Amino acid sequence: MLGKISGIAARRNLWTARALHAPYPYKLILDTKPSVLPPASSQPAETSVSALRFPGKAPESSSQQSNDSIIGWIRASAQIAADPQAQISPQSFIENRQFWPLVLGVLENHVHEDPELQAQAAFQKTGWMNIADGRNPPPLGRTGNAEDILGCVLVKDKAMVPGTFQSNWAHRPVTTDGLFQLPKYLHTKLLERLS
Predict the structure, then answer these.
(1) Structural domain count of the chain
(2) 39, 82, 89, 114, 135 from 86: Cα distances, Å
(3) CB-CB contact of 136 with 177 (8 Å)
């Protein structure tokens, strides 16, 4: 019996390791000469940064203090040119505080329209349903880590109730598992909002 349990645990760890190194499913743009820089208080003077954003409207000039199309900034290092996604970590990432309210607005307005989440709501039937971040989805029937839950929405009669989305203050845009990942439908709505 112990050998069987160990085998299951080994397979689970192997699956987790593969999932952690999966490529980011959406296109990202890394601007190594950004026109908009992070606030001086969050950036050491000797460090250069690259702006991280999704395709769409780019910042227009350096006179802008911030831009909601920039997800955040990554502190530059020698390895950044080789694999930009590997550099997206809590230690290298500087959050753009104007970007996240835009994401929450998309979730509030469109979460109930997402086909994948509608299927999940039909399965749950009633109660509050967590909206998990795709970078580290929880096993079926389990609750994810607080930093990986975007928020929750009320489900009644197998359907999400529009206007009931509640954001999770403990969610982190970047963790050791990487950058946040919205469901495909909501990511498309975010890109529409950015363009």
Answers:
(1) 2
(2) 24, 9, 8, 29, 14
(3) yes
73-131 confidence digits (pLDDT tens):
887 664 455 555 556 788 888 888 889 999 999 999 999 999 999 999 999 999 999 99
Q: How far is CA 165 from the centre of its chain?
A: 17
Q: Is 3 part of a structural domain of the chain?
A: no
Are 122 and 106 members of one domain? yes
State the amino acid at position 14 in one-letter form: L
Q: Output the CA–CA distances (angstroms, integers) from residue 142 to 137, 138, 149, in the order listed.
A: 10, 6, 12
Compute the distance between CA of residue 60 and CA of residue 54 in angstroms, rounded to an integer: 15
Token readout for 64 is: 């802008």
Q: Name the residue among 187, 174, 190 with its Cα closest to residue 88.
A: 174
Q: Which pLDDT tens digit goes with each residue over 28-82?
A: 767 666 655 666 555 555 467 778 888 766 555 544 444 778 888 887 664 455 5
Q: Is residue 113 a contact partner of residue 186, using CB atoms and an 8 Å limit? A: no
Q: How far is residue 167's CA from residue 183's CA, in Å, rounded to a whole number?
A: 15
